[in-house]
């Protein structure tokens, strides 16, 4: 493999790995804050136990996310220095804002929340939990604004051959970002919901035949996760439809590759499943099961809109952006070669379906868990813990598949052209890579992969330890009455600290 391909593998591996932690942190932080709110309002012990248990798992996951996330920004300078120089003026603002939120607001209020038990008044301590959770979403907003600019560059002008930002407002209110943010946040809640259903369902089933003082903790957690998961999937469907319509306008090749739509159709059918090799752009050997005219509706809210196919779009892209790469030695073996404007169709086609399919499965498991645990019931079959624990993986897979589709669907561009934006405002991925040797990239790829493997083992060990330990593992014995705090707690038996 050459430097470009290795650099893409490295960025893909580290990004997907990091994103396993991100949605769980975002979704769980809000749900933990909601649990603590319920405790402050009602004083019920189960809500405090829920806050402590899920809060401990949140902290483990957040710590791993911070460690793995630092590498992401380092890679812009490591393997993608040409890209960094090209977009630096634009990316500097949202990434700086994200850094301020992540490393100052998040860390400050998280620290106050961790060490503020029994030291801060209840409502002040609760406010710290909400400040942290809202900061995680704000951090995601700035990252998504930066990523959305790569999908649809706005708010810039060309100065000396480089994009220079002339409107931070346009960058932060990019319609691509405004559609991606609720979609991504809904995906995060889907992950957190499945996590609650899986872990709580396992605990509920494990002690079904014996008296369990924490049974209401698991039942409340499971049912909270089930309802959140169902609502999150509904939001995913609505916001995904909005994104699809923007994709039809802004990145028609991505729309065509999501369907492996080789030839222009009017009306265009939505492909449910394909049999055959979708890798070829002519689709001669592919048979698909379709819903007539549905793709036209998803693209433009009517059942007759023309949707252009891959073969037709290739000619349009060649006319707009050139047929060959520049004859530049920095492009290595691609210098002067024809540009392949067709993304990896098997990845985009099946990635799009994996995103939808695994999201639906996750919501379905949550809905089934709600039904099976109604009116105090506890399922007794051995299939139940397998179902809910396996369900934890489904939204993770769906989120990862969605991001892989999003990023690979815009290839060969690292900054996709805006059809109605500044002329010439795009960058090919082949032009973005650093001037490195194959050996250097192999070294960093192997080193980072091994490091992430070790971190993954550590996270799984800690998560397993605290999950198996249950509530008792995170709730130290109550303090003696004569050592109570000066906080406004009105229940000495519930005065605990991490």
TrEMBL record:
It is a multi-pass membrane protein. Residues 474-498 are annotated as: Disordered. The chain crosses the membrane at residues 20-41, 53-71, 91-115, 127-150, 185-205, 217-238, 350-372, 384-405, 441-462. One of its GO terms (cellular component) is cytochrome complex. Coiled coil: none annotated. Keywords: Cell membrane, Electron transport, Heme, Iron, Membrane, Metal-binding, Transmembrane, Transmembrane helix, Transport. GO terms for biological process: aerobic electron transport chain. It holds the Pfam family Cyt_bd_oxida_I. It is found in: Cell membrane. Its main location: membrane. Belongs to the cytochrome ubiquinol oxidase subunit 1 family. This is Cytochrome bd-I ubiquinol oxidase subunit 1 apoprotein. The lineage of its organism: Bacteria, Bacillati, Actinomycetota, Actinomycetes, Pseudonocardiales.
């Amino acid at each position: 493999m050459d430097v470009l391909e290795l650099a893409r593998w490295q960025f893909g591996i580290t990004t997907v790995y990091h994103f396993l932690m991100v949605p769980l942190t975002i979704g769980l932080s809000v749900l933990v804050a909601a649990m603590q709110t319920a405790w402050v309002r009602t004083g019920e012990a189960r809500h405090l136990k829920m806050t402590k248990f899920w809060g401990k798992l949140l902290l483990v996951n957040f710590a791993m996310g911070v460690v793995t996330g630092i590498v992401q920004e380092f890679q812009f300078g490591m393997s993608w220095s040409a890209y960094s120089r090209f977009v630096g003026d634009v990316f500097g603002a949202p990434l700086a804002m994200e850094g301020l939120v992540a490393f100052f607001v998040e860390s400050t209020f998280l620290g106050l929340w961790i060490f503020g038990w029994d030291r801060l008044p209840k409502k002040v301590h609760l406010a710290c939990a909400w400040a942290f959770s809202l900061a995680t979403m704000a951090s995601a907003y700035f990252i998504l604004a930066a990523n959305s600019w790569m999908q649809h560059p706005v708010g810039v002008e060309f100065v000396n051959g480089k994009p220079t930002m002339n409107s931070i407002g346009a960058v932060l209110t990019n319609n691509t970002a405004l559609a991606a943010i609720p979609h991504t946040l809904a995906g995060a809640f889907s992950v957190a919901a499945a996590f609650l259903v899986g872990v709580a369902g396992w605990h509920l089933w494990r002690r079904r035949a014996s008296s369990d003082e924490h049974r209401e903790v698991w039942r409340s957690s499971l049912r909270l996760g089930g309802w959140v998961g169902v609502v999150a999937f509904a939001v995913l469907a609505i916001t995904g439809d909005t994104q699809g319509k923007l994709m039809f306008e802004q990145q028609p090749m991505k729309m065509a590759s999501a369907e492996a739509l080789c030839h222009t159709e009017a009306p265009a059918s939505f492909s449910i499943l394909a049999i055959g090799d979708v890798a070829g752009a002519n689709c001669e050997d592919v048979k698909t099961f379709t819903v007539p005219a549905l793709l036209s509706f998803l693209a433009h809210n009517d059942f007759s809109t023309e949707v252009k196919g891959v073969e037709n779009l290739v000619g349009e892209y060649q006319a707009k952006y050139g047929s060959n790469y520049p004859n530049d030695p920095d492009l290595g073996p691609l210098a002067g070669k024809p540009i392949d404007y067709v993304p990896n169709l098997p990845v985009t086609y099946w990635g799009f379906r994996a995103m939808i399919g695994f999201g639906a499965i996750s919501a379905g498991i949550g809905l089934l868990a709600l039904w099976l645990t109604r009116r105090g019931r506890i399922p007794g079959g051995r299939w139940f813990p397998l179902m809910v624990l396996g369900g934890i993986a489904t939204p993770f897979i769906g989120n990862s598949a969605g991001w892989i589709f999003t990023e690979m669907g815009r290839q060969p561009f690292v900054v996709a052209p805006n059809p109605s934006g500044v002329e010439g405002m795009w960058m090919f991925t082949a032009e973005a890579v650093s001037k490195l040797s194959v050996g250097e990239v192999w070294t960093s790829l192997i080193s980072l992969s091994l490091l992430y493997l070790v971190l993954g083992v550590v996270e799984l060990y800690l998560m397993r330890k605290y999950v198996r330990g249950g509530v008792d593992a995170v709730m130290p014995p109550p303090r003696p009455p004569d050592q109570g705090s000066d906080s406004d707690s009105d229940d000495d038996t519930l005065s605990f600290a991490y």
